[in-house]
Amino acid sequence: MKSLRIALTKGRLEKDSVALFEKIGLDCTAVREKGRRLILPIGNGEIEVVLAKAADVITYVENGVCDLGVVGKDTIMENGSRFFEILDLGFGRCRFALAAKKGTDFFTGYKEKTVASKYPNVSRQFFESRGMDVRIIKIEGSVELAPLVGLADGIVDIVETGSTLKENGLEVIETVSEISARLIVNTASLKMRKAEIEILVAKLETAIKERE
Ligand code: PRP
Question: For residue 44, what are the contacts with CB-CB under 8 A and spacing of at least 6?
Fold first, then answer.
């Protein structure tokens, strides 16, 4: 039988994903000792892991070349969802927040505000829900720099420990939404490989509950 293929976000979520798979009894030696390999068998080969960047996890799952994916809610919110989000995996917890230079009164004044973010769609939706007209500038990395150099009045970014903001004289104005890693599934796979997926999800759910 063909392996179930899971796209795994490499980097931050990788270690916790592997720990969770090991907790349900899947041997993850190949992932732990991966070297530069990108497709790795886990368990007895019944599952194949594909390591990818977060946004690509979604692309692989949406296009059906991976049955499942582990990806942050942040990436899901920014990229939309033509797939099913079936489980909150409980790790990778952080939040989206609006932040600005310490002491900034962000919501007052008549001048249109400028906000920098790696997540323009999330930012747009947040300000639309507030009925606020805001100019959004897309930044690729270290968004914290934008208010410091005068490019933006604020940023919408991921806050985990808060130390990046603190060390750069910025502070949270408001939480936009909570984030954690999610298990996503291709819509066709959920029908075609329902039994296998349900067994895997049930095991994961039990492991997550035990951990909490
Ligand atoms: C994220 C985010 C912040 C930082 C927040 O960046 O964009 O810069 O983490 O974490 P903290 O609250 O614990 O300080 P990341 O390190 O993922 O790098 P990136 O800029 O490449 O996305």
Answer: 27
> Which ligand 1 atom sits nearest the alpha carbon of residue 144?
8
Domains and their CATH numbers in the chain: 4-92+180-211 (3.40.190.10), 94-179 (3.40.190.10)
Instruction: Convert the pLDDT of each residue in 68-99 to its tens digit.
Output: 999 999 999 999 889 999 999 999 999 999 99
First to last CA, the chain: 34
> Mind listing the pLDDT tens digit for each residue in 154-175?
999 999 999 999 999 999 999 9
Query: 104 CA to middle of ligand 1, Å?
Result: 21
Distance 6 CA to ligand 1 centre (A): 25
Contact 54, 8 (CB under 8 A): no
Instruction: Measure Cα distances from 125 to 46, 154, 179 in Å.
Output: 40, 15, 16
What letter represents residue 10's amino acid? K
- Residue 5: CB atoms within 10 Å: 20
Q: What pLDDT is stored for residue 81 in this prediction?
A: 85
Q: What is the number of residues in the chain?
A: 212
